[in-house]
Amino acid sequence: MREDYSGYSVPDIVRMFGERFKDYRLRANLTQKEVAEAAGLSVLTIHRFENGTAKNISLSTFLLLLKSVGSINDLNDLMPEQPESPYLYKENHQKAQRVRHKRL
What we know:
This protein has a domain of 69 residues: 434 Repressor (Amino-terminal Domain) (Orthogonal Bundle). The chain starts with 9 loop residues before the first helix and ends in a 26-residue tail after the last helix. The protein is mainly α. The protein has five helices and no strands.
C-alpha cells in the first residue's frame, strides 16, 4: 500500500526522506564524508539532511545525493512516466500544451 503524503508538511517529508537516505547510505557502505565528497556537498549538509534538521533541500541537492549512493535510477519509482491520456488531445487531435479554464 502506498503512503499518502498529502497531509504532511514539506519539512516533514524532507525529514522522512533524510531518514530514508541514511539507510540508503549505510546500505551502500558509505560514510557521510564519502557521500559529501561524491556529491560535492558539505558533511554538515549530509548530517542535517539525515538527522532531520534540514527543513528544505533543493531538488538538485537531492539528485546529487541519490547519485552518490547509486540510487539515481530510482527516480522512475518516485515519478513514473504517465501513459498517454485521451484527455490530453483536443478535437483537432493535437496534444494539449497547457490547461486553460474558461471564464464564467
